[in-house]
Structure formats: C-alpha cells, structure tokens
Write a sequence for this structure.
C-alpha cells in the first residue's frame, strides 16, 4: 500500500509540475507520469508502456467517434443559426426578463454534446448583443452564461470528459445523464439566485466587434429584444442535433432497467441508444437542418472559414468533417493518454485497498470522488484529465466507498467544477470571448463555478444519502 500511495503522489506531483510549471503539453505530461507510476509500482518499462497503450486504445475505442460526432454537431449549430434560435426561444419564454438565463440555458443545452470551449465561441457574441440591447450588466451576462456551459461540460455525457469517466467506472450512461442534468441544473439556478445581485453591478464593456451596429432596444417589450435574422430554424429543429442523442441514450438506459434482455423492443432501443449511433443521428439532424437552411448555412460557413464554398454537399460532408477533425484532435489524444495513465493506477494490485484505508479513518466515502475531482482540477486544469485521473483512482475503491458507479461519476463531475484557474485552457477562452480581464475571470469563472460545484456536490450527496442515486 505504501508503494501504491507513493506512486500516486509522485506521479501526480510530476504531472502537475510538468503542466503548470514547465508548460509541457498534457500528452507528454500524462505519458511521463504514467511511466513513472508504473516504474515505482515495480513494472518494467515494456509492461508499463503496454498498459498505457492498452488504456489509450481502450479510451479512444470508447469515446473517439463521440468526440468527432460532437464536433460536427457544433459546426451544424454554428452555421444553421441554431444557437440564435435557442436564445430567442428563452427570450420569449421569459418575456424579456432575466435574459442572462436565455443565453445561459441555451449554453447549458449546447454544451451537452459539445466541448465547453466551442460553446463559448458560439454563445459569447449573443451574450454581448443581449447585454447591449437591454443595457444589462455584462458581468451578469458573462457569469451566468459561462457557468452553465461549464456545468454540463463537466457533468453531463456525452460531453467527452464525463463520458470517459462514466465508461471507465462502468456506470449506467443514461443514469449519469439524468442525475448529471438534475445536479447541474439545480446548481446553476441556485448559483444564479445567490450571485445575480452581485454580478449585476458590473457594467464592463462588451467585446466591440460583437456589438458593431447594435443599438439599445427602444422598449422593454421582449419582441424588441429578439435576435432578428432571416432564415433562423424553429427551436425544435435547432435543438434536435443536441437533444436527440441524449434522449435516445436515456431511453435505452430505461429500457435496460425495465425489459428483459431478449425483448425485441429493448434490442431496438439499445441499438438507437448506442452512444455512437445516437451521436451520429444527431449529426444527421444537423445535416438536415443545413439542408433546410441552405443559403444561411453556406454563408455562415464561408464567413467563419474564409472560404467561398458554393456546394452544400461539400460543406456538409467535407468542410464540416474536416473542421471537426481539427477541433477534435487535441481532446482525442489528451483523453486517450488520460486513459493510459488511469489504466496504470487501475491495474495496480494495491489499488482496491485504498478504499479500505479511507473507510478506516472515517472519511465519508461519498465525498471521496468529489474531493479527488476538485483536487485534480485545481492541479492539472483540464476537466477531462482531472476527471479521468479521479476515475482511475476511485474505480478500485468503489466497493469500499459504498456508492454506485453512477454516483461516483456525478460526484467527480461536480468536483471538477471547483477551482478552475489559469492552468485551464477554458479559463483563458472565457476571458477572451467575454472581454474580461484576469480579475473578472477569477470572479465570473473561478468563483461562480466553485460555488456551483459545491451546490452540485451537496445535491449529489443528498441523492446518495436518500438512496436515489
């Protein structure tokens, strides 16, 4: 046990030092940390690198297509005008009141299959426009738009990081989606109630290029606040590439719990609810959305890519796919190496005994995944790396912790909301996209996100204690 704990401490310390102090790419940092952990555990170099390779390959097998399909869906949301349709829907729903919730809930939904950084790029111009048109504090708009996209990025599959955590823990994917949504939505609304008065006092300027030619609305009528643009899809079509995969995965999970394995309906639902098939059907919805808004989609694609494409089929089946592969490459490889590092920890003979040690000292087992997730996020920055490392540590302990794999995954996701700071690439993206300085980014990303993470952890803890999750 001493050797195992030493291997964890030293390898994670090296991982942190490489990423934070030496600014080494996470791929190399994770590889070095994994090799070091294997060496301390007494494995030979060949055995260690084989284990890392097996973990790398297994992780990519599990989530590779999911990341790629999610990136294609992001292209469809951008070019079809779906993001604007979602924001308009929530503006109408709230009748022009509390419009930070309009962009916030749109971001909450968009970030479920799409990386949070990409969602920021898509939603931040709309956030600035609404801030300008309603003369609403940008501090409030930014904080309550960044927060929900980080929550679903951290807690709701099929976002790749929490998806990898759920698969590594062998948790029921549908249940992780359900309870991830419940905990993250409560955390978002709870944080909004607590922090909206504080954030609404900061009228810092919007990003100039986002509000060029935008004027303040002449009235408080919500119809004057809508984003006026020809050819926007209706909200059901706009949400279909995102919600269809989530619904199919959740229905398949429910079928698995209520139907016999040989039931033909269950087999059919399991086929549609396979995460890769479900995400591909989401991609197909995105393609259909562009087909029904051809001119708009081509114009948006050409504007964002700098190209002069005239063929819709080339845009859909080549342009979008090429962009998606470029966006997905880094998350794919980093997540794969995270799986390799986790595999070293998972296969250590003493790994299963760590939970017994924690139980012996009386530390609540339900808090262990939350604390480890928070510590790793603070240390390495990447929620994907933090979550997978935490999952690798928690998997051998599940029996001793006394919680389900679903609960462990949700609590890890909540923990990774804590202490996002300068070593997190999303932190810098939020600063740029929402026109913040470092002080405001600490306030509206780090502080607000930390409060939401605590609320999500409390909600998750309550669900575990009462036996629901």
């Amino acid at each position: 046990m001493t050797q195992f704990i030493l291997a964890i401490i030293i390898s994670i310390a090296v991982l942190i030092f490489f990423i934070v102090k030496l600014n080494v790419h996470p791929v190399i940092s994770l590889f070095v940390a994994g090799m070091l952990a294997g060496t301390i555990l007494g494995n030979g170099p060949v055995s260690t690198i084989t284990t890392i390779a097996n973990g790398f390959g297994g992780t990519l097998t599990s989530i590779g297509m999911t990341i790629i399909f999610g990136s294609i869906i992001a292209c469809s949301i951008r070019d079809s005008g779906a993001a604007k349709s979602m924001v308009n829907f929530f503006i109408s729903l709230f009748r022009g009141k509390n419009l930070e919730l309009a962009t916030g809930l749109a971001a909450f939904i968009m970030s479920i299959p799409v990386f949070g950084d990409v969602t920021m790029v898509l939603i931040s111009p709309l956030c600035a426009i609404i801030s300008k048109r309603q003369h609403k504090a940008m501090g409030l708009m930014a904080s309550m738009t960044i927060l929900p996209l980080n929550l679903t990025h951290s807690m709701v599959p099929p976002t790749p990081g929490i998806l990898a955590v759920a698969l590594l823990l062998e948790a029921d994917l549908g249940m992780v989606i359900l309870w991830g949504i419940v905990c993250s939505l409560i955390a978002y609304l709870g944080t909004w109630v607590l922090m909206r008065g504080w954030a609404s006092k900061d009228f810092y300027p919007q990003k100039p290029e986002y509000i060029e030619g935008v004027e303040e609305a002449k009235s408080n009528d919500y119809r004057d606040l809508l984003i006026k643009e020809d050819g926007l899809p209706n909200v059901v079509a706009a949400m279909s590439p995102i919600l269809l995969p989530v619904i199919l995965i959740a229905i398949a999970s429910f079928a698995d719990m209520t139907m016999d394995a040989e039931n033909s309906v269950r087999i059919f639902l399991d086929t549609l609810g396979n995460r890769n098939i479900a995400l591909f059907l989401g991609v197909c919805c995105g393609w259909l959305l562009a087909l029904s808004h051809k001119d708009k989609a081509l114009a948006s694609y050409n504007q964002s890519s700098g190209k002069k494409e005239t063929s819709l089929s080339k845009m859909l089946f080549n342009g979008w796919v090429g962009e998606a592969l470029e966006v997905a490459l880094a998350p794919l490889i980093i997540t794969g190496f995270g799986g390799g590092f986790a595999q070293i920890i998972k296969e250590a003979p003493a790994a299963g005994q760590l939970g017994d040690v924690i139980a012996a000292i009386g530390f609540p087992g339900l808090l262990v995944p939350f604390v480890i997730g928070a510590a790793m996020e603070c240390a390495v920055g990447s929620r994907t790396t933090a979550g997978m490392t935490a999952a690798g540590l928690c998997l051998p302990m599940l029996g001793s912790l006394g919680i389900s794999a679903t609960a462990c995954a949700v609590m890890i996701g909540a923990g990774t909301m804590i202490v996002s700071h300068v070593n997190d690439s999303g932190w810098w993206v939020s600063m740029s996209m929402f026109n913040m300085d470092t002080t405001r980014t600490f306030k509206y990303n780090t502080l607000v996100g930390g409060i939401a993470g605590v609320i999500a952890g409390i909600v998750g803890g309550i669900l575990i204690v009462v036996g629901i999750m």
Observations:
- Residues 13 and 130 are 44 Å apart (CA to CA).
- DSSP finds 21 helices and no strands in the chain.
- The two ends are 30 Å apart (CA to CA).
